[in-house]
Amino acid sequence: MIEISDITHAMMYIDDIEVVVFDLDDTLYSEKEYVKSGFRAVSRILPQINDAEEKLWKAFEEKKLVFNEVLQSEGIFKEELKNLCVEEYHCHIPNIHMYDGVVEMLVKIRNQGRKIGIITDGRPEGQRAKIENLNIEKYVDDIIVTDELGGINYRKPCTESFSLMRKRMEKCFVREIPYFKMCYIGDNIKKDFIAPQKLGMRCIWFKNTEGLYF
After folding, report:
1. Residue 194 to residue 190: CA distance in whole angstroms
2. Judging by DSSP bridges, how do beta strands 182-186 and 2-4 pair with one another?
3. What CATH number does residue 198 fall under?
4. 106/98 Cα distance (integer angstroms)
């Protein structure tokens, strides 16, 4: 396991790698930024709550069930209203940005003749909204949202998405790509690297101390 403290430092460890696969959340952009963006969207459908965005974030920082906590504390909890908040959060158009240097790194990797993929877990509508807002598709060769393969059972540490990414990249190269010529770069030490290590891929841990779940 290679450990880096800056995502752009990954460039130092891929000289012999042909396919570079990234995680998305807290690897290429800040997930805290997404959460705040979601709470901002939800606050707009809760005009009856003063400072709703701040109260939602406080509940989140306290690791509480955010919408239950805030709606109950305001005395307006209803299951339908909670569900509306959840839907708004996951389907909102996010206001997020890639980390400094990420675009330049992706461009450099591709200019070197390597292929780039993204494997990310999460509800498809939310992940696809992030991908679209970041405008990241033009910098990579393939993106797999694991839930789209058949539900949450395909999320990491399931190996299916990594095997599929390999097959798709082999079509790009029109030849076989051994797993040891692939690497996975992610931030979640608990789940990101179980599958790629099992398959024989190189693993690079972005030790993101500002990450949501660090």
Report:
1. 8
2. unpaired
3. 3.40.50.1000
4. 11
- Give the count of domains, the chain: 2
The dihedral built from the CA positions of residue 152, 156, 157 and 158, taken in this order, carries a sign that is positive
Six token digits for residue 154: 């395909």
- Kindly report each contact of residues 36-45 with a partner whose C-beta sits within 8 Å and lies 24 or more positions away, as own/partner: 37/92, 37/94, 37/95, 37/96, 38/88, 38/89, 38/90, 38/92, 38/94, 39/66, 39/89, 40/95, 41/88, 41/89, 41/92, 41/93, 42/67, 42/85, 42/88, 42/89, 42/92, 45/84, 45/85, 45/88
pTM to 2 decimal places: 0.93
User: Would you say residue 85 lies in a domain?
Assistant: yes
- Residue pair 206/10 in contact (Cβ under 8 Å)? The answer is yes
The per-residue pLDDT for range 127-172, each reduced to its tens digit, is 999 999 999 999 999 999 999 999 999 999 999 999 999 999 999 9
Cβ atoms of 206 and 19 closer than 8 Å: no
40: domain range?
Answer: 33-91
